[in-house]
Every structure is written in C-alpha cells, then in structure tokens.
Amino acid sequence: xxxxxxxxxxxxxxxxxxxxxxxxxxxxxxxxxxxxxxxxxxxxxxxxxxxxxxxxxxxxxxxxxxxxxxxxxxxxxxxxxxxxxxxxxxxxxxxxxxxxxxxxxxxxxxxxxxxxxxxxxxxxxxxxxxxxxxxxxxxxxxxxxxxxxxxxxxxxxxxxxxxxxxx
Length: 167
Description:
Elements: H1 5-17, H2 28-35, H3 39-51, E1 55-58, E2 64-67, H4 76-84, H5 117-134, H6 138-165
Antiparallel strand pairs: 1-2
Helix pairs in contact: 1-3, 1-4, 1-6, 2-3
C-alpha cells in the first residue's frame, strides 16, 4: 500500500490555512508556487477536498479556498479518503473458492465458507491504521510543524501574507 503524493500535498496545503485570517482565501496558484508543485495537480486535489467538505471555494479575482471547518475537526483519514477514495487497501480476490485458506476444515459449499483468514487480518490492520489516522488532525500537524520549524514557519506565514496582499 502506498499513498499518492496528493495526500502529502493536501496535508501540507491544509496546514497553511491555519495561519491565514478567517474569511481569507488562498488560491491554488499561491499554494503551488509556495511548494514548487503543479498548479493543475493541486487544483485536482482541491476539487476532491471540496467534494469531501474539507474546504470550500470562493469565486472571483481574490477567490480561492478556505477550510470548511476548524482544523481540529479535520483528521488525516478524512483527507486520505478524499484523495485516495474509500476502497479498502486490500482487495481480497477470494482465491480460496474451494475453502483452501478458510478456517473451516472441510470443503462443502464455497458460499458457506468462513471468511478468508488473510482478508480478515488485512481488514483488521487497515481498521487499526484508520483509527490512528482519525486521531491525528490538521491542528495537531500545524502545531508540530510550527514547533519544529519555528523560523521557517514564520517565513512561510509571511510569504503567504505578502502573496495574498499582492492580489
């Protein structure tokens, strides 16, 4: 399992919104320039984030995006699901059609086999990861980045204020 780079871009972008005054929007142009990434790609990511209710868009010359809810209410799993979709990571193809890997000892009827043991384990692992990622929020990420990068964080905040002031 591997998350796309879109998850990283989304999480980084969402942390920048925390320091922007309420009612101020950021465009994908500014976000892309700040990070040195494709504006087209970020636009696709923000379309997904908007559809998931994580951000909302404002039209116009000074339009852009803003958080649709408080950063403490946006968890990592919500962002991952918005970008990657909601399909389970492990897709059981049910190769045990004859109950070979089933927990039952004897084959009788494939439709009556116990659940595939591999699938059960993989789904449990995914559920644990989901629970962990649901406990991590954009607000926490912002505070961690802010405390670890201090001066760089302040420079980033100033960069966005200047960029938004030039609009």
